[in-house]
Design goal:
Copper Amine Oxidase, Chain A, domain 1, Methylamine Dehydrogenase, Chain H, 4% helix, 55% strand
């Protein structure tokens, strides 16, 4: 079997998927992020976990597992041979094995298996194709039905690959980057002079980690745009709002512009090669000591979560009822789901709202009527975990959650909360109405009726809702 070039295993195993950083700088106590569930159904090491409708993981014993995102229970598992590479897009996810197999799944269903010439070290999946690279330098591209589209051979082992625009871009063990078009023809190539692997892309450019303790920015036409030396070998990175976030194997964490100018750097400790989760003005970073550090966007630590084992992966924030969740996986085979309680903020006259400082659009902007703040009902209710039902004949909206039921009628000042008639407001004129096809309701009443806290900021002209 071929030996792994330095950093491949770390670059593959340590995966994070991140969301957008916003400008506000909230603080977060460590006690907020307590595990909502844990699962011990896995064994061995893992590669590139993937979230779609479930949490999918390939484990070192040769199995692919799918876990329920709400409770961590295993849905299904399948044997695929010991894996070395894993990648997913939409409902499709592919596994590459040490025996050369490439196995494509759609959710929990195995679609096909194809064989390369050697160990599969790199995979990339899009909405219509799967690319694989092996230790012999073979690069193969398949469609989702398993038909071979083209094959090419590089000068050395394929370390990593990414689809960027119209090209599949590969890096090999000699330090060469090669781009192929949709027919497998050479588009361009460039040599970095040392082993490099892709750690991020902003859609137009690639960011490449180098064994010489540097990071490169390479355009999708093969031009080296910038190079920056750092303390240690860079791990996986996230590009968000024009900034680049990554840690190194020497324990340093960097925030840079996409032109590789340093905004902030700090020593966090341990090896930080995972891709940070950037969410709601905070950055979540795992290190080799079993810590998950919570940093602000200046790299300053605001909290620490501890699992007791090396955290091999963090997973993307995903929405789960009144929580957003971050999934951590440690090397003992334990999976943790940390729940981040949500905070909603609505602004008068603005057709968007914030959920934990991440922006989402509204169909109708909040407004003042009868000296009360009205908001689109569905946005608030569904964010707080309620199902919403509309009866056009009765002009009634029904909200249900865990045995609790709320009825509201268009034009009526009386709501029914678990069967009890409840005035919406002391002013009998205050009632739900329709605007732009959406039911508008008094925010304070509906929030308190379904068990949330409401506060008003007169300066911002905003309303904050917390479960």
């Amino acid at each position: 079997m071929a030996e792994y070039p330095r950093g491949i295993r770390q670059a593959v195993v340590f995966l994070l998927v991140a969301l957008t950083l916003v400008a506000t700088q909230p603080t977060l106590a460590a006690s907020v992020l307590t595990p909502r569930w844990t699962s011990q159904v896995l064994a061995g090491s893992y590669l590139s976990p993937y979230v779609y409708d479930a949490l999918y993981l390939a484990t070192g014993d040769g199995y692919v597992h799918s876990l329920n995102l709400k409770n961590g229970q295993e849905i299904k598992y399948a044997y695929v041979e010991p894996p070395l590479a894993y990648s997913g897009y939409g409902g499709y996810h592919a596994v590459g094995s040490q025996y050369g197999a490439v196995t494509l799944f759609y959710k929990t269903t195995k679609v096909w298996v194809k064989y390369m010439q050697d160990e599969v070290w790199a995979l990339a999946v899009t909405n219509d194709k799967v690319a694989a690279g092996d230790a012999s330098g073979m690069v193969s591209c398949f469609d989702l039905k398993g038909n071979i589209l083209w094959n090419r051979v590089l000068d050395d082992a394929v370390i990593s690959m990414r689809f960027v625009g119209a090209y599949l871009v590969t890096s090999d063990a000699s330090g060469k980057l090669t781009a192929f078009d949709s027919q497998g023809n050479d588009a361009w190539s460039v040599s970095l002079g040392s082993i490099g692997w892709f750690i991020a892309t902003d859609g137009a450019n690639l960011y490449v980690s180098s064994d010489e303790q540097a990071i490169y920015k390479v355009s999708n036409t093969g031009k080296i745009l910038a190079k920056k030396s750092v303390n240690g070998v860079p791990g996986m990175a996230e590009v968000s709002s024009g900034q680049l976030y990554f840690g190194t194997d020497a324990g340093y964490f960097y925030i840079m512009t996409t032109t590789l100018s340093t905004i902030a750097s700090s020593y966090v400790g341990g090896s930080i090669e995972g891709k940070p989760v950037v969410y709601g003005g905070l950055v979540y970073v795992p290190n080799i000591k079993g810590n998950i550090y919570v940093l602000d966007s200046y790299g300053k630590r605001s909290a620490t979560l501890y699992t007791g084992q090396l955290v091999s992966s963090l997973m993307p924030v995903y929405r789960s009822g009144t929580f957003d969740a971050i999934v951590a996986i440690d090397t003992s085979g334990k999976v943790y789901s940390f729940g981040v309680p949500i905070t909603l903020k609505f602004y008068l006259g603005r057709a968007y709202y914030l959920r934990n400082n991440v922006t989402y659009t509204l169909d109708a902007a909040p407004e003042i009527r009868w000296d009360r703040t009205f908001v689109p009902l569905r946005a608030v209710a569904e964010e707080l975990g309620y199902q919403v039902w509309w009866d056009a004949t009765a002009q009634r909206v029904t909200l249900t959650k865990s045995g609790k039921t709320v009825y509201l009628y268009i034009g009526s000042n009386v709501a029914y909360v678990d069967g009890k008639a409840t005035p919406i407001d002391a002013n009998s004129a205050v009632a739900p109405y329709i605007k732009s096809g959406r039911t508008m309701v008094p925010l304070r009443f509906i929030s308190e009726a379904i068990g949330a806290k409401v506060s008003w900021d007169a300066v911002e002209r905003s309303v904050t809702v917390q479960p």
